[in-house]
Amino acid sequence: MQPTGLKPAGPFAAPERAAVYRAINERRDVRGQFLPDPVDPAVLRRILEAAHAAPSVGLSQPWNFIVIRDGAVRAEVRRAFEGANAQAEAMFDGSRRALYSQLKLQGISEAPLNLCVTCDRQRGGPVVLGRTHDLDTDLYSTVCAVQNLWLAARAEGIGVGWVSIFRDDDLRRILGLPERVVPVAYLCMGHVNTLYESPELEIRGWASKRPLDEMIFADRWEGRP
Ligand SMILES: Cc1cc2c(cc1C)N(C[C@H](O)[C@H](O)[C@H](O)COP(=O)(O)O)c1[nH]c(=O)[nH]c(=O)c1N2
């Protein structure tokens, strides 16, 4: 007799597996391909349900989703990006700086929907199972929710672009976040007709994908000390 709550768990049927891997492999970070069409609330709901189904430390579910449609708020966020991006550009030298200045790194105003995924660092109380020795596991949990969201959005034909070039204080002020709440991911979202076949940063010559075999070590760290 199986204990209550268990159900059979075998591999998915081949087309279902293919769909999962397709979503993973065809997910892209979107900056410039957003269409102005609004995102259907039912579609957004499914995408947020996917995010909310993510694993979380001690089942603390530390995330919130701030849904931003207001153009005035987006304009303010866009200004915050411009300020931080000017600082960012100055951190690179020579030809890297020139290339950086040509990259489009956000679609805040073009995307009809922006979403800030936050992490409440006090969710679940003072002691959370699994977070007792690594306080950042609530942040890792929130990132799991972001990845679920990103994959579900791909399956729905909704592009997502993550923007992290902000001064923390700016986002906090604009979105009215209390001290205990961390803005983990600022996402631009909207319908897309086309997506790049590989990461745009690779196509534009900024960075390239590394082979998986370089990433796999056996038993111990095998890279540079
Ligand atoms: C935590 C974090 C933060 C950012 C990003 C991603 C992640 C995970 N990415 C997107 C990033 O550049 C992109 O994921 C990689 O280049 C790989 O491309 P694909 O996502 O596979 O298309 C990103 N992109 C961008 O244009 N502006 C940004 O500020 C950021 N910030």
UniProtKB/TrEMBL annotation:
Q: Does the keyword NADP apply?
A: yes
GO terms under biological process: cobalamin biosynthetic process
Q: CDD domains in the record, alphabetically?
A: BluB (cd02145)
* EC code: 1.13.11.79
Reactions mediated catalytically: FMNH2 + O2 = dialurate + 5,6-dimethylbenzimidazole + D-erythrose 4-phosphate + H(+)
* Record-annotated Nitroreductase domain positions: 24-191
Question: What's an example of a GO molecular-function annotation for this chain?
Answer: 5,6-dimethylbenzimidazole synthase activity
InterPro entries the record matches: BluB, Nitroreductase, Nitroreductase-like, Nitroreductase/BluB
The alphabetical list of record keywords is: Cobalamin biosynthesis, Flavoprotein, FMN, NAD, NADP, Nucleotide-binding, Oxidoreductase
Q: Enzyme class, one word? A: oxidoreductase
| Entry similarity comment | Belongs to the BluB family.
NCBIfam families documented for this protein? BluB
Q: How does it assemble?
A: Homooctamer.
For this entry, the protein name equals 5,6-dimethylbenzimidazole synthase
Q: Which organism is it from?
A: Seohaeicola zhoushanensis
Q: What is the lineage of its organism?
A: Bacteria, Pseudomonadati, Pseudomonadota, Alphaproteobacteria, Rhodobacterales
